[in-house]
Design goal:
With 410 residues, the protein is of the alpha+beta class. 45% of the residues lie in helices and 19% in strands. The model has no long low-confidence stretch (mean pLDDT 96).
């Protein structure tokens, strides 16, 4: 992606902008290189709690004024937390872009965490936990992180625990921000029809005055992985299963080839091998898919499905059969070409979303120090060989390396 602009402020904040002339909507947001893995044991859930509390009051606004600032002009304001990122973002007519930039700056850097709001939001998050526990297809994903990563912070639930969330006080938020916010480890990303000169002017107005917060903030790397098999009985009507283990990090050159391998196995296409072998051929599942989440120093691969309790072992056997095929049978020329074309098509369509593109700009910059262009990715995809995929399958998809977590009806 050569047609984007980058501007670095004296305090270390980087501003990325892509001009899209035909759109009337602006997408913008702060992406911070902070996530749940940066929490200390007693801080579990604090990053996500901060994401909620950012909307509850700043030095000059109460919650009502934050929530109405963009809504009254038809805009949207939102946020999310992952293992390694927090994002505060907005979408609205580009004529109101300055309104969004000023508000996002205010709630990201000037939140005051009112004690009364902490008590109210504590209840909201505890209800959010209950909601996830009532959805086993979501809960098993969080629990599988703990199976693979154990007591490391990557294994902790992003929402935290009921005990930790119930204990947080105002000073905990300020302490967490002081420990983790670094102005050279956050970006402001935007996609709109505005000229970069205007975005740069507003960045100097709202972002340049922010004090620089520099210095190292090391992350505890993940250590040893031990394979686990676990069965948990739950008050549910359907069995749920997750099979997976470690994969490649964001900086590993095998990351893109493994994305292709994962896409072939259980990606979103209805022609994925798992979907054809388990759903279409035998009708054993409604949903079966595989996923790959790369982190800065490791990665996670997983296969999820839900089925009748009596069909769990049969379904696991079918999954293992497909993994064995990938380990033992090299893709033919036509299969390899089709897999590449499918992945490149999916990536191209994903980039059609300007909101998604805005986040891609920021994530790529934080993770890789540069924006990884789609043409660069396409070139790497085209270079992938069948022998390379066979090697990756034998490194990651061996049964004796994959953990299994099952939820079965009581």
């Amino acid at each position: 992606m050569s047609d984007y602009d980058l501007y670095e402020l004296p305090n270390g904040i980087r501003v990325l902008h892509k001009t899209v002339p035909h759109t009337k909507v602006a997408h913008c947001g702060f992406l911070l290189d902070i996530g749940s893995r940066d929490e200390k044991p007693a801080q579990q859930g604090l990053a996500h709690f901060w994401e909620h509390m950012a909307f509850k009051g700043t030095e000059k606004r109460k919650s009502f004024h934050i929530l109405n600032r963009l809504e009254t002009v038809g805009g949207e304001l939102n946020a999310y937390t992952t293992k390694e990122k927090i994002c505060f973002y907005a979408s609205l007519l580009s004529t109101h872009f300055e309104r969004a930039m000023e508000l996002l700056t205010d709630l990201t850097f000037h939140s005051v965490f009112p004690e009364k709001e902490i008590e109210k939001e504590r209840g909201v998050i505890l209800e959010e936990m209950s909601m996830y526990q009532d959805a086993p297809e979501d809960a098993i994903i969080d629990d599988f992180d703990a199976v693979v990563f154990g007591n490391h912070s990557l294994g902790h639930n992003i929402l935290g625990t009921r005990e930790s969330v119930s204990s947080f006080q105002q000073q905990d938020f300020f302490r967490f921000l002081g420990e983790n916010v670094r102005t050279d480890r956050l970006v402001f990303s935007t996609v709109s029809n505005l000229p970069f000169s205007e975005v740069k002017r507003l960045a100097n107005k709202y972002l340049a005055p922010l004090p620089a917060r520099l210095g190292a903030r090391p992350r505890l790397p993940f250590g040893a992985y031990n394979r686990v098999e676990r069965v948990e009985r739950k008050p549910i009507s359907q069995a749920h299963c997750l099979i997976g283990g470690l994969a490649y990090s964001l900086e590993d050159e095998r990351r893109i080839p493994f994305f292709l391998l994962n896409n072939l196995l259980g990606g979103p296409g209805m022609n994925s091998r798992l979907n054809l072998a388990v759903r279409e051929k035998y009708g054993l599942v409604y949903t079966i898919d595989s996923s790959y989440s790369p982190y800065t120093d490791t990665g996670l691969f997983g296969i999820y499905f839900g089925t009748e309790k009596k069909q769990v072992n049969r379904t696991i056997s079918l999954v293992q059969k497909e993994l064995k095929r990938l380990r033992e049978q090299s893709l033919g020329t036509a299969q390899l070409h089709t897999s590449k074309e499918q992945l490149m098509g999916q990536l191209a369509m994903a980039e059609e979303s300007n909101g998604g593109l805005m986040q891609l700009l920021g994530k790529s910059t934080l993770d890789l120090g540069r924006v990884e262009s789609i043409n660069e990715i396409f070139d790497r995809v085209r270079q992938i060989t069948a022998s390379e995929l066979l090697e990756l399958a034998n490194e990651v998809l061996c049964e004796d390396q994959l953990s299994i977590l099952q939820y079965v009806p009581e």
